[in-house]
């Protein structure tokens, strides 16, 4: 298998393994929340295996062998996309983590205090509630009442957010704004849309 990636224009971009004595650093990022999960290294063999099996495989510098993340714990990193930097010597992999990434049990090896992109994690949770509905799920109960009720809830939460911003405490405002964003995510999912679609639209407007 060739050691190349396809860029946005479907042109082949070769990976420079020679620059780092046969190894290139690999950053792994959650494909939905965009949280950085870990950093590892790959040689050409690890890179080829990662492409073939769609599970992130590194070259362990301490064990001097290939190492597939999750081979013992089952906490695999399932590859969603590959990207390469401008110097062609670093790979970014966006992956779906199966369980915690770090051996300590944390979701990220960088042990951040909280997930700054939790809105994307919340979107993933809402999507899961849609795909695997249960009676005790609030999302499922809301959804069964139809899109009119979901849209109504967004409107109600928007009004309550405005009232809290004008007349209530900062904590109240944060709580109401959180309720608004949650119900908006549910409405987006009901319409078959995502936060990514909104982000792209906002970016386009900014340009």
TrEMBL record:
Name the pathway it acts in: Amino-acid biosynthesis; L-histidine biosynthesis; L-histidine from 5-phospho-alpha-D-ribose 1-diphosphate: step 3/9; Amino-acid biosynthesis; L-histidine biosynthesis; L-histidine from 5-phospho-alpha-D-ribose 1-diphosphate: step 2/9
Q: Where in the cell is it found?
A: Cytoplasm
Q: Where is the Phosphoribosyl-AMP cyclohydrolase domain positioned along the sequence?
A: 38-111
Q: What is its main location?
A: cytoplasm
Residue ranges, annotated region (Phosphoribosyl-AMP cyclohydrolase)? 1-118
This protein's source sits in the domain of life called: Bacteria
List the InterPro entries: His_synth_HisIE (IPR023019), HisE (IPR008179), PRib-ATP_PPHydrolase-like (IPR021130), PRib_AMP_CycHydrolase_dom (IPR002496), PRib_AMP_CycHydrolase_sf (IPR038019)
UniProt entry tagged with the keyword Metal-binding: no
Known EC number(s)? 3.5.4.19, 3.6.1.31
The record's region (Phosphoribosyl-ATP pyrophosphohydrolase) falls at: 119-207
Q: Which reaction does it catalyse?
A: 1-(5-phospho-beta-D-ribosyl)-5'-AMP + H2O = 1-(5-phospho-beta-D-ribosyl)-5-[(5-phospho-beta-D-ribosylamino)methylideneamino]imidazole-4-carboxamide; 1-(5-phospho-beta-D-ribosyl)-ATP + H2O = 1-(5-phospho-beta-D-ribosyl)-5'-AMP + diphosphate + H(+)
Which keywords belong to this entry? Amino-acid biosynthesis, ATP-binding, Cytoplasm, Histidine biosynthesis, Hydrolase, Multifunctional enzyme, Nucleotide-binding
Which family would the database say this protein is a member of?
Answer: In the C-terminal section; belongs to the PRA-PH family.
NCBIfam families associated with the record: histidine_hisI (TIGR03188), PRK00051.1 (NF000768), PRK02759.1 (NF002747)
The name this protein carries in UniProt is: Histidine biosynthesis bifunctional protein HisIE
Organism annotation: Sphingobacterium thermophilum
Task: Give the organism's phylogenetic lineage.
Answer: Bacteria, Pseudomonadati, Bacteroidota, Sphingobacteriia, Sphingobacteriales
């Amino acid at each position: 298998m060739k050691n190349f990636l396809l860029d946005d224009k479907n042109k082949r971009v070769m990976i420079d393994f020679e620059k780092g004595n046969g190894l290139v650093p690999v950053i792994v990022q959650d494909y939905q929340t965009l949280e950085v999960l870990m950093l590892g290294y790959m040689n050409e063999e690890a890179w080829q295996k990662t492409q073939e099996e769609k599970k992130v495989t590194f070259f362990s510098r301490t064990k001097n062998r290939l190492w597939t993340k999750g081979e013992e714990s089952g906490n695999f990193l399932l590859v969603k996309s590959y990207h390469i930097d401008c110097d062609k010597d670093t790979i970014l992999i966006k992956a779906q983590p199966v369980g915690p990434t770090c051996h300590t049990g944390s979701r990220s090896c960088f042990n951040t205090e909280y997930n700054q992109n939790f809105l994307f994690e919340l979107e993933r949770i809402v999507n899961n509630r849609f795909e695997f509905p249960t009676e005790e799920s609030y999302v499922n109960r809301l959804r069964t009442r139809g899109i009119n009720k979901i849209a109504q809830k967004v409107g109600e939460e928007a009004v309550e957010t405005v009232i809290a911003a004008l007349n209530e405490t900062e904590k109240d405002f944060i709580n109401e704004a959180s309720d608004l964003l949650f119900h908006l995510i549910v409405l987006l999912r009901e319409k078959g849309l995502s936060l990514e679609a909104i982000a792209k639209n906002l970016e386009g407007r900014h340009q």
